[in-house]
Amino acid sequence: MPVFHLFETVTGKYMFDANANTFLKLNERSYQALLNYRNSNFEQVEPEIQNLFDSGFLAEKQDFEMIHPMSDSLQHNLSRSVGSITLQITQNCNLRCSYCAYSGSYLHRVHTNKRMKKEVALKAIKFLIEHSVDSPIINIGFYGGEPLLEMDLIKACVAYAREQSEGKELTFNLTTNATLITDETLEFLSSNDFNLTISLDGDEVAHDRNRVFAVNNKGSFQTIMDNIENIKNKTPDYVNKVMFNAVIDPNSDFSCSTNFFSNYETVKDFAVMASDIASSYKKSESLINDSFIKMYNYEVFKLFLYKFDRLKKKDVSKLVMESFDQIQENVHNRLRISFYDVKKDHHSGPCVPGVQRLFVNADGALYPCERVSEASSVMRIGHIDTGFELNNIRNILNIGTITEKECKECWAFRYCTSCAMAADDISEFSAAKKLSICNKVRENTESLFKDYCVLRELGYDFDKEKV
Question: Radical SAM core domain: from which residue to which, for each copy (predicted)?
Fold first, then answer.
């Protein structure tokens, strides 16, 4: 049975042939013929359909073994190619952000006073070094809670890592709410060339709506502004290592956040990465107001105008810049890959657990990343004392096997964004839970396809990407 998808844009009607991994612009008759062909369960072969057959489209999708291509080399890569580690050095925080994973709004995760012991942290770093023989560059990230509550531990980790990692390039990351950055802390971070990510959601109204101090429930915006000014004044050469992560509240005024990051004197020269409020493990669904969606889409439209030299970069919201990267990387670059005669395959989405990212919680347990729940037995991939649990890692990597039939029939198979976290039911993987997000994944994929085809029709050259 051929696997294809039909969609329309302002520039025409299109078919995406999943087997050929390509788009085809159709005239009205061919488009209607394909609709009829699909609705007749692939029995009504009109002349337009035969023409597509004769041109090499609509080939029967060959069966294949549902297994991730990295499965065969998994053990080797885990032994020698781990490149980074993120340490949860504390589960405590001096703020109480309403959408934090530990805020109580998510299943199985709350703030605690638990902190990572020094021996656990050093053992985790040794674990990284021992499993990174083939990685010339290794990265250590510090995560919380609020990691700056544990500055003595961070200093001990950096000293130990430098001592043990001879012959490798060593880099450090730290994500912080920036309320605890003293002059001494700033000197340490800058002198050790830390990549510093500061959580900042927008102007004072947007930021303080969700990010308040635990002791008095007051907003943290002004404290952060004071500390950013201090960074600029005391260590001006360090500014290019600092960026903001803005968690965008769908009930906030998107235009205010956009104007803030572009025009507010304290922050306008910094890079910004925007992220959504995490939905996995959340107890209730986050609703998005219509005005937010309209304003966001308007900024994306302006981004497209910038790509065609109709606007200047400064006129486009920093918060939507990455949306174009998704079209470039997740559509255009993947179209270059041929999938004929594939014997083993797996839908896109999963990373290679432990190799691409490795998260160590305060107790020394290993997980694929900091976004998964530490309460989940199926997402745990080992411990620094006992090593990797290869079977769990294989199950996470090959999560598509629990929905194999549906996945093989899906036109978005190679553009899927679903990983094992979507199926995590804490004690087992749930096929029903994984399938429940498939419509949303397909909707997002179709949206990217539409944007890509329109931009191509209007003459945009993705092979000469404008930065």
Answer: 77-338
Amino acid residing at 342: V
User: 193 — alpha (psi -120 to 50), left (phi > 0) or beta?
Assistant: left
Paired residues of 243 in beta bridges: 197, 271
List pLDDT tens digits, range 171-195.
Answer: 999 999 999 999 999 999 999 999 9
* Rounded CA separation 357/355 (Å): 6
User: How buried is residue 421: exposed, middle or buried, by Cβ count under 10 Å (0-12/13-18/19+)?
Assistant: buried
Task: Write out the DSSP string of 451-463.
Answer: HHHHHHHTT--GG
Residue 111's pLDDT is what?
74
CA distance 328 to 282: 30
pLDDT surpasses 90 at 98: no
CATH architecture of structural domain 75-336? Alpha-Beta Barrel (3.20)
Q: Measured between alpha carbons, how far is 425 from 375 in angstroms, rounded to an integer?
A: 10
The whole-angstrom separation of Cα 357 and Cα 369 is 6
Q: What are phi and psi of 392, to 5 degrees?
A: -60, -40
Domain ranges of the chain: 1-61, 75-336
CB contact set of 241 (below 8 Å; sequence gap of 6+): 190, 193, 194, 195, 196
Strand order in the sheet with 382-383: 271-276, 242-248, 195-199, 169-176, 137-143, 84-88, 359-360, 365-367, 382-383, 387-388
Q: 142, 175, 135: which is closest to 156 by C-alpha?
A: 142
Q: Could you give phi then psi for residue 118, rounded to 5 degrees?
A: -60, -40
Whether the CB-CB separation of 126 and 245 falls below 8 Å is answered with: no
| Alpha-carbon span 194 to 243, nearest angstrom | 11
| Mean pLDDT confidence for 54-58 | 92
**15-20: long-range contacts, CB 8 A cutoff, minimum separation 24:** 15/57, 16/411, 16/449, 17/57, 17/58, 18/61, 18/411, 18/412, 18/413, 18/414, 19/58, 19/59, 19/60, 19/61, 19/62, 19/339, 19/340, 20/56, 20/57, 20/59, 20/340
